[in-house]
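RETRY 2/3 - previous attempt timed out on the joint model. Re-submitting the same 139-residue input unchanged.
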Amino acid sequence: MNKLAVLYWSGTGNTQTMAEAVAEGAKEAGADVSLLTCAEVKDISAFDAVALGCPAMGAEELEDSEFLPMLESIEPTLPGKKVALFGSYGWGDGEWMRTWEARCEEKGITLSAASVMANEAPDDDATAACRALGAELVK
Ligand SMILES: Cc1cc2nc3c(=O)[nH]c(=O)nc-3n(C[C@H](O)[C@H](O)[C@H](O)COP(=O)(O)O)c2cc1C
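RETRY 2/3 succeeded.
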């Protein structure tokens, strides 16, 4: 069975809602899914696929007290796994996600599905896109 880790940070719950939808989509597709906050992330070597969720924080940045250190700790192990990104944003235009995608490319991490962004709380379309992302990662 495909094993997916959904690793996320969320301050006000929007990215958490997205993470739950990603996990549901993958479970429906028959995968073994672990939904983990940053503090819960230890060794991800057992996972075939990793979905990473973080909202736009700072000035179009990833959250830097918990998410970024967690990301830095696992990044060396991500090349070769199926990886996809998601997160919520507010007033920006998605710049944080473009920067994050470029960071992945620099580190040799190939994204296996289009990133999913939601403006604040995910609407029905964004929720469906999160579920599809989860299913795609465990195909
Ligand atoms: C400290 C802080 C910084 C933020 N910076 C940005 C930003 O640079 N661009 C943007 O579009 N939204 C920004 N936002 C809005 C959040 O990305 C948005 O509210 C998002 O839905 C929060 O997701 P969460 O509920 O998962 O924490 C910021 C919010 C906070 C609290």
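The pocket of flavin mononucleotide is lined by residues 10-15, 55-60, 88-92, 120 (CB under 6 Å). Closing ticket.
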